[in-house]
Design brief:
2 copies of one chain form a homodimer. Chain A is mostly helical. Helix content of chain A is about 55%, strand content about 10%. Chain A has helices at about 15-25, 30-40, 50-60, 85-120, and strands at about 30, 65-70, 80-85. At the A-B interface, α1 and α4 of A face α1 and α4 of B. Chain B binds a DNA duplex (30 and 30 nucleotides) through α2 and α3.
Chain lengths: ~120, ~120
DNA sequence: GCGACGTAGGTGCACCATACACATACCGGG
DNA sequence: CCCGGTATGTGTATGGTGCACCTACGTCGC
């Protein structure tokens, strides 16, 4: 607009990938490549596979998920991930945090709209 | 619960500080130390002053805000910040992004609750 | 046979926001 | 005179994220 047109880094929540993966795994056992396709529906556009696999392995080591190799007749083997009880607990906690964030964003929106109205009235 | 009690990094949106500061400045001219007190109301608990002042100066250099030193009779001088037109534009854009994020979080919540219900029913 | 393509998983690395610690300066009160 | 509250900063480590790149398997087409 003004010339600068600075790139506006929108910004998803920090560590948003983990909650998303846990939710998807709560909906059913899956593997990395498939999860990659399902992530955009949760607001995660252009996820890099590297980070995804790293995240899955980290959660595996922490006991939030359980992994198992599943040989495939067509194509390379898949590593399937399953949510553990601890992972389900974690999901519950993080869902609460996201709900709190959602409330903060609602507050933000309310105050933003009020400030816009005040600005419009002043013109 | 299980013993680990892993620290859950909740995670506010990336670059959330900027939108918050711009909103607060849209509500009225202010200075750093005062903004520091107003941030918790927008979900930002325990903000470090360093980052705050850095952020304000960065936005000043980018032309999103305008700063002016205001001498004080009691206590040190204050640097007051005022929103520019460009900053208001930026605020509008970023508010849209946050609204989009809010929608993603709503989707997340819906799917989470459905997955919980399915899990309860299975027991 | 062989290269190209889609599937599937993985490593290395640089960047940048954030977090934490610490420094400076002004003023008033005990 | 030191201390606490106000107010603004600097230095630096950490860690999530993004980008580039790599391996391996199977299949289709030439």
């Amino acid at each position: 607009m003004t010339g600068g047109a600075e790139e506006v880094p929108v910004g998803l929540p920090r560590n948003y990938l983990r909650p998303c993966l846990l939710l998807l795994l709560a909906e059913g056992t899956s593997h990395g490549y498939e999860l990659l396709d399902q992530l955009p529906a949760l607001g995660m556009h252009r996820v890099d596979p590297g980070g995804l696999y790293r995240c899955l392995r980290a959660m595996d080591q922490e006991g939030l998920v359980r992994s198992a190799w599943e040989p495939s007749t067509s194509g390379p083997a898949r590593r399937t991930y399953e949510l553990t009880d601890e992972g389900r607990e974690w999901l519950h906690v993080v869902a609460g945090s996201l709900a709190e964030l959602s409330r903060s964003l609602a507050t933000y929106r309310r105050r933003y709209q009020r400030s816009v109205q005040r600005h419009e009235r002043r013109r």
